[in-house]
């Protein structure tokens, strides 16, 4: 019987790193798949000023109308949704058997909300940690520590 192929997904709301299995202790750092979401700064979002609405009653008074959504939160949801779609396509292609997900606290909530049942069945472990900025070697060591692999 073939050993199960495990992918390790390390993400936050703007970046995801996917490691296809972990290398042995003396093997070089793994090749990883990296996904990047849009990186809008709060300043850019705030520059989009509230629109103006004119009242037909009351002498044509103007009032600011706030945008209907939080653009940064929307970017985060869209990015995590893209990661989920990518992984689901890879699942259908039988690229992996199991997933270990290590995500920041804000990303894990979105992840759980967007996760289809078929992909959820592949998830072996979920950890709430933001390891995205670790170097490749630090990342492998941290994953080993979390999973005791």
Description:
- The protein has 149 residues and is α/β, with parallel strands linked by helices.
- It has one domain (6-38, 70-147): eRF1 domain 2 (Nucleotidyltransferase, domain 5), CATH 3.30.420.
- Helix content is 36%, strand content 25%.
- The protein contains five helices and seven strands; from the N terminus they run E-E-E-H-E-E-H-E-H-H-E-H.
- The chain has helices at residues 42-47, 71-92, 105-114, 117-120, 136-147, and strands at 6-11, 15-20, 32-36, 51-54, 62-65, 98-103, 123-128.
- A five-stranded mixed beta sheet has the order 3-2-1-6-7. The chain has a two-stranded antiparallel ribbon with strand order 4-5.
- Strand 1 and strand 2 form a beta hairpin.
- Helix 2 (71-92) crosses helix 3 (105-114).
- The mean pLDDT is 86.
Structure, briefly:
By secondary structure, the protein is an alpha/beta fold.
- Backbone shape: globular
Radius of gyration equals: 21 Å
CATH H-level superfamily title:
eRF1 domain 2
- How many helices does DSSP assign? 5
As a percent range, the share of helical residues equals 25-40%
Strands, count: 7
Q: What is the name of the CATH class? A: Alpha Beta
Cα distance, first to last residue? 20 Å
> What's the main sheet like?
5 strands, mixed
Tell me the CATH architecture.
2-Layer Sandwich
Which sequence of strands runs across the widest sheet?
3-2-1-6-7
- At the fold tier of CATH, the topology name is Nucleotidyltransferase, domain 5
What are the secondary-structure elements, in order, as H or E?
Answer: EEEHEEHEHHEH
Specify the structural class: alpha/beta
Protein name: Host attachment protein
Organism: Histidinibacterium aquaticum
InterPro entries: Host_attachment_protein (IPR019291)
Region (Disordered): 48-69
């Amino acid at each position: 019987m073939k050993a199960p192929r495990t992918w390790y997904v390390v993400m936050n709301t703007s970046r995801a790193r996917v490691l296809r299995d972990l290398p042995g202790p003396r093997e070089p750092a793994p090749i990883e798949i990296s996904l990047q979401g849009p990186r809008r700064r709060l300043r850019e979002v705030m520059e989009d000023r509230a629109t103006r609405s004119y009242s037909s009653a009351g002498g044509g008074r103007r009032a600011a109308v706030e945008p209907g959504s939080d653009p940064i939160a929307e970017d985060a949801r869209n990015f995590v949704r893209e990661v989920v779609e990518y992984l689901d396509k890879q699942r259908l292609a039988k690229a992996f058997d199991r997933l270990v997900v290590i995500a920041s606290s804000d990303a894990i909530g979105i992840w759980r909300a967007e996760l289809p049942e078929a992909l959820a069945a592949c998830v072996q472990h979920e950890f709430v940690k933001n390891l995205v900025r670790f170097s490749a070697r630090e990342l492998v060591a941290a994953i080993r520590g979390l999973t005791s692999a």
